[in-house]
Amino acid sequence: MKSIKKRLANSIALAMTVLWILCSAIVWILPGFSLLVTNWWTHGMDLSAMRSRNLTFGTFVWGGIAAIASAWDTGWILGWNWEIVEKK
Description:
By secondary structure, the protein is mostly helical.
């Protein structure tokens, strides 16, 4: 049986994969809306310099790899902590 660490890591990485693909599609199809949402998330910062998008296949792949690896690491650390707390 897989440890909690691996199950959480795999689950969170899978969720990030789905979210990364959806987010990238929205940025590609609706760049203006994406910029508006980013503006909301950054508390209204002036992001006018970001008007042009630079979403290429390479940035999609490398950004996805970085995001998914970070998500997997986060899940593993969360699972590790969970196992420690569960034993006590």
